[in-house]
Amino acid sequence: MICSHEMKGIVYGPVYAPQLGRSLGVDPLPPPYRLCTYDCVYCPFPPQPPGLRGTHWPTPGEVGSAIANALPEAGPLDSITITGHGEPTLHPRFGSLVAEVLSAARHARPGVPVRIVTNGSMVCQEDVRRALDLLDERIVKLDAAPERVCRAAAGHPLGAVIATLPLLRDMTILSCFVEGAVENTDVDSVREWVDLLAELRPQAVHIFTPSWPACEAGVVPAPAWRLDEIAAQLEEQSGIHPLVYE
Length: 246
Prior knowledge:
The protein is α/β, with parallel strands linked by helices. 30% of the residues lie in helices and 19% in strands. It is globular and about 50 Å long.
């Protein structure tokens, strides 16, 4: 994950994140508030006030131009990553956005992979899914106990989202663990998460805990030893070897 203070403008960075390496970030959401289908307890971005209107979505052309202008000065990169202060697949012209990002990236940095960090809630829409499959890597956020940790908005039932994820050509799973007022490191939550990942068979799994103050009062990072236990349980029961970021 990338912290909110690092996101400034459509293109920001390069910044370093353990899951992404040295990455040039692409934020296609309208500033300054979070626009998302989830209300995760550990999200560092402030929610959009109720009833606020008039936000301006960057056009695909604006995003492509911003990337093209940034890449010559970006230095060495491990990735170009579409992410942001919310859910990037909510962009009303997401397919065109992906086309512009890929065009700019392939022209200036043909060897650098283009990734996205998404919560997967829009995968149910075929046009979004087709656009996601054009990217080099789909990093899908899927936490244990998502009902109480992610808190999906009405219209995005978690069961339907999870059932649609296998339609992607492949995916990397990114899972956050927290404790305190809301937690998902308990035995039952971890067991259900392990069983789900064993069914999904992602190409990779990344486990982390927040390194920033959580927005939800009383939510705290999970201890390193518990992350290691969870990783060992996943590997033992599914054969999947996750990467742990503490």
